[in-house]
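Lab notebook: predicted structure, single chain.

Context: the supervisor wants predicted structures on file for every construct in the current expression panel, including those that have not yet been purified. This is the next one on the list. No modifications to the sequence; it matches the entry in the shared construct table.
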Amino acid sequence: MYQIIDGKSVSNQIKQEIAEEVADIQKKGGKIPHLVAILVGTDGASETYVSHKEKACERVGFMSTIVRMKETVTENDLLEKIAEFNNDDDIDGLIVQVPLPDHISENKVVEAIDPEKDVDGFHPVNIGRMVIGLPSYISATPAGIIELLERYNIETSGKSCVVIGRSNIVGKPVSILLSRKSSRGNATVTVCHSRTPNIAELSSKADIVIVAMGKARFLTADMVKEGAVVFDVGITRIKSDKTKSGWKLVGDVAFDEVAPKCSFITPVPGGVGPMTIVSLLKNTLKASRKK
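Prediction complete. Output recorded below exactly as produced.
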């Protein structure tokens, strides 16, 4: 019988732990962590995500500021705003919500953020430090996956792991974290992507499968072995006549057919998703502690 990896419950537990630490900092007259999010334009998904971050900050006792800029803002004006926040000692964490309008270079924006305040963990300095095993801010979703492996005491050492998807935000960093010499590392990792001809053959031999393709129900039962651990990072909205809204959220895993073969599996929603915001909070607390 498979066990559900309940990201919602774990994230609530971690929020409680953070809230207790922040209350203790406040009692001792210390600095309350402050997270700033810059939102350019009015992308619906970004609005929702930023509002979730704001609520999470409130719940754990952080200060949070959302700065809204028009879609027509120039790249230069955005970079100036980032520089202003980099120089503000009251601000511990700074994130710029993506996607950005076409006229703004995402790479330039990422590199403009002070690595000490880059709580999204996207800056090349943080990625480089992560690769060689130095302390760094690790991007939220990979950090969330490692946290879930830790909290559910899932062994990774000596295990074979297949990561499907090679994005800079999930696939690449999580493959590096799992192969590092660390408590939830030491796995033998294969990274598959759109040009991999034999994904099913590779994934069906893996002890751990992490799917971050962005293709609804991509991973089917024939692609996993008995007793595998499966992490589903995908989230796609599909039409459904069984919900009030007419839509439902599904992951990259065909859950109903894959789950019975697994030892552990994350659901969508409620698996990896809730861990991303909590990882961002942990990074912001870490940044604040450094001061």
